[in-house]
Amino acid sequence: MALPSSVAIIGGGPAGLLAAQRLAEAGYRVTVYEAQATVGRKFLVAGHGGFNLTNAEDATSFSARYGQQQGIFQEFLRHFSPHELREWAASLGIHTFVGTSNRVFPLAVHKPADLLRAWLSRLQELGVRLRTRHRWLGFVGATSLLVRDETTDQELEISSDATVLALGGASWAKTGSDGNWVSAFEAVGVKCVPFAPSNCGAEVAWSAFFQTKVGRMPLKNIALHCGTEWVRGEVMLTEYGLEGTPVYALTPALRAALSAGTPALLHLDLKPDLSDEQLLTKLQKPRAGRSLPDFLRQQLRLGAPVPTLLREVAPPEATATPPALAQLLRRVPLPIQGLRPLDEAISSAGGVAWPELNKHLMLRRRPGTFVAGEMLDWEAPTGGYLLQGCFSTGAWAAQGVAQWLRK
User: Fold this and answer.
1) What is the dihedral of CA 187, 389, 232, 307, to 10 degrees?
2) What is the rounded CA–CA span in Å between residue 379 and residue 65?
3) Which of 95, 121, 130, 162 is in the most buried spot, having the most CB atoms within 10 Å?
4) For 84-103, what is each residue's pLDDT tens digit?
């Protein structure tokens, strides 16, 4: 009796591990190769900032979070939806709830390590073999792969009936996501879009006085605009510029402006809950000798660091009259000089170019080799969309492998 087909999974992140689980459940012999000492390193690090698995947003809005790749991600999300991700977590004993802004979190008793531990136990039950400290080095011939066992420093040639590559993007290199695989892809003619930081801080050339006086301070309940795009939330003023969910969401627009050589300008709305008329009415009340900081604090509850910020980015005449001040508070200009380095970014844009793949995420130049996760050229904001994208592409690639092997 012939043995079941074998599948090699390169990369032990969410995309690779879910592909491994799906394929093992379908009866295939699966081996996962991971360069690090343990799997799920970036998954665990991401969980430190709030273990946000997915989002409960409606399907149309959800797929729109993937920008230029919205169309193809609609198909991925239908195949493995946010609801299915929550059911999958529940099958591992990790129950979830919908928090603010529709973000989905495990119950407080569950930590990222709890989910990963339960997941690895399930994979072991399914017969998935895990080979850590095995670094992928590149392609060999038409179908084989080369890995190095870093425990013995021995190079091994791997032959399998199909392969899923889930090597990650290029942010947070300390977790193993360093993008070094690009050279091996380009060596066999597979085109890759250069990596760029996504979901990262933006740099502003603050004065030395501002850096000293403000340091790190939050601005809550604001709206941030970049061209026609805007996002509500909270930003953090930092010594280098600003960071926070609204900044991260606008990274693609900022990167496009910076790449085109045009001014990359953010506008900060400090009172988005007030209409223009309401804002002006409050600012037209007599100051009665109060300083601008006192007036803003009493009338609009705008305390530090707002007065210092206004002095930093606007001339004195911008606060001289109620109409001018109202206009400034609605559109505080923040000139962006650049984005933070790639290795500081939460995620990366760029990766394997879509024309190199068929609809099943198989490399056209290497039949039987599939790609999933952050290796693909896509990006999405924080809020559950990144992890969901990795899980969904992993499930989709697994389906492609199964179809390929059945043929």
Assistant:
1) -40
2) 8
3) 162
4) 999 999 999 999 999 988 99
